[in-house]
Each structure stands twice: as C-alpha cells, then as structure tokens.
Please model this.
Amino acid sequence: MTSKYYMPTRILSGKDCIKENSMLFKTLGKKALIATGKNSAKRNGSEKDIISALDSEGIPYVIYDRVMTNPTVECAYEGADYARAHGVDFVIAAGGGSPIDAGKAIALLACQDTDADCLLSGQYENRALPLAIVPTTAGSGSEVTQYSILTNDKAQTKTSIASELLFPQLTFLDPRYMEGLPVKTTVNTALDALSHAVEGMLSVRASFLSNTLAAESIRMIMDCIPELLGSVKRENENLISLKVREKLQHASLMAGMVIAQTGTTVVHAMGYSLTYFKDIDHGRANGLLLPEYLKLVEKVQPDLAASVLNALGLSGSDKLAVLTDLLLGSKEELTAEEIRKYSSMAIQTKNMANCIVKPTEEEIADIYTRTFK
Ligand code: NAP
Ligand code: FE
Model:
C-alpha cells in the first residue's frame, strides 16, 4: 500500500517568535480578525504580542473574543458575520483548541454562504481566508491539522469539518503563553496529545512518517510525566517548568502532524459523547478511555500494542491505567443506559474505519464500563 504525507503549515517556534516574524502577517492579508476565548489570551500575553506585531506592520485588526470551550456551529457563524462586517481578509486564532477550531470555521464561512447542514456534510466552496495560529495549550494539535471540530447540537455530538483549506498558513509556538496554564488543563491537553499520537499508531492510515512522529511525541510526553504528577499532587501549575511546557508544546505539535495523516480512532469517537452529554473535558475524556482501548488492542494484536508500549516505556497497558488514574483523579459516573447510548453512537462514527483493531458495539460498551467501574 502507498502512503502519503501532507502538512503545508509554516511553523515558527521559540520565545518572541511572533515579534521576530511579524512581517509574515503581511503575506496573509491587509486586515485581520483575531479570534480568541473570553479571557486567557488577554492574560497570557498572546493577544498583546499579536497586536504589537500587527501594529508594527501597520495591519489593522478587529477582535472576536466570544469563543467558548467546545465551540458551537452558531459561534462559527457569528464570528464569520463579524469578519465579513469588518471586511477582514485573514484570521489569527489564539488560544486552545477551541478558539483555533472556531477560527478555522470562521475563515471558511467568511468566504461563503452555506447553511450548517452543508457545512457539516462537507458541501462548501473551495475558499477560505488565510489562517495564522497561536496555540496557548499543548494538546489539540489543531495548529497543524486540517480539522475544525464543532459542537453539533442537531446530532448531539462533536462534528469534524475536514478540509485542506483549513491547514493554517502560519503557526507560532511560544511556550511562555502557557506559563500560567492551570494544572488540570495542562494534564488534560497533554493526554489529548498523547491520545492523538497513540491513536495515530493504531490507525489503518499510519505510515513510516506518522509512526516516527508519533513514537517520538509519546516519548516526549512521557518524559514530562514526573513533573506533571508533582504538579497534580501539590495542585500547583508553577511547578511545571518552561522547559517541560515547551516539550509538551512540541510533542502536541508532532501529534497533530500525526492525526493530520491518520485521523483519530474509536477513543476520540467515544470521548465525544462524554464531552457532549457529561461535560467531560475533551482531553480528559480521551485520557480516561485510552488505557482500556489499548488493553483490547493488547489482547487482539499484541505486536501492535507492543510498539505503542515501547514508545510509552511501559510493560503493559495496565501500567498506563495506573498513570492516568494518578493524573486524572476520581472519575465521573456513567449509567448502563448512558453506556448503551454512547456505544451505539460511537460505532456509527467515521472514526471506526480508521481503527486497525475495530471493536464491536459490545466491546465499546465494555471499554466504557471498565473505564468508569
Ligand atoms: P480550550 O477549550 O481551547 O481551552 C480550555 C480552557 O483553557 C479555557 O477556559 C481557556 O480560556 C483556557 N486557556 C487556554 N489557554 C490558556 C492559557 N495559556 N492560560 C490559562 N488558561 C488558558 O482547550 P483545549 O483542550 O486546548 O481544546 C479543546 C478543543 O480542541 C475541543 O473543542 C476539541 O474538540 C478540539 N480539538 C481539535 C482538534 C483538531 O485537530 N482540530 C484535535 C483535538 C482537539 P479562554 O476560554 O478564556 O481562552
Ligand atoms: Fe483530540
């Protein structure tokens, strides 16, 4: 079988990378929309750095700072209306995966009139505004993927828009924006990245390139675990060094490059219901579910599981469960009825086609049950 690799985003990284590369914004357009969440971009310095860079290049801008976590389809339409009303011709998204994904959908919708059903079923014209991304968490990898994941109330789940139009032109990685990132968000996002890398290795679309990136991303995240455990134990984000923050940022980027090629698997498909119905954070949902899926892989395809466990530096998937238990603390409760409903939704997702080890609906229910026992 042939394999392919495509990732067209230019990546700038390191302290002050926005300031030092401000001229690149000029290559994207003449007026910017800055898309952010309500608070964090104002507090962590990313918005200020973007504005200074735009000012220094004489580029006018407007700010849309109404993106919520797990952004809705409505939010994307509202942001696109705002972009059009102000005549912007490129988008800069700053924040975690939520503002990044909303910014991508805004960039697409600002160029066309299409209703939500068409948007979510892939029917739109081949046009989007150029995108620059400033991630302030280390988890989604959305800064290098072609996906925008929106909360879809009609289908009661999260739906991914996937298009090469959504690959950002530019990504700026400055680890300092994460210095105040709370312990919980740091852990949840790190586990999202870990899940991307592991799921990438368990995908039918894995290739030698994606596996190389995934294995290294997993190793880098595992190197950070001792510091993360220390910060969880003492509930103090200041115990996470800038060096570890940077390593997580790079590992998350690499895991994003992986899922841009491989897609995600049943773990993400199962996690969407936990987020939609139980309000469980996206990364936490994946971190909770990953060990039990890996246990199934270990049973059905031990060689495949061994390659992942080798990268994790663990002797078995039960050891991963011990680690995620320590990182994630006490678990939520799921009823038998909820498990039945979420399993029947997960089995119908497109993600199932990506799984090398395809669980049955009963096995999916079993993964939920064992995870939340
Ligand atoms: P997020 O939802 O973007 O942000 C979570 C929280 O962290 C928000 O309250 C945010 O505040 C805050 N925050 C962000 N950066 C901060 C910082 N530097 N310091 C302090 N607080 C900060 O979280 P996320 O886990 O990064 O993203 C999750 C989303 O990404 C989900 O919607 C998921 O579906 C998506 N995702 C997308 C892809 C993809 O390829 N497109 C892949 C995986 C996940 P504010 O609201 O004030 O900013
Ligand atoms: Fe994810």
In short: The radius of gyration is 20 Å. DSSP finds 15 helices and eight strands in the chain. The longest strand covers residues 61-67.
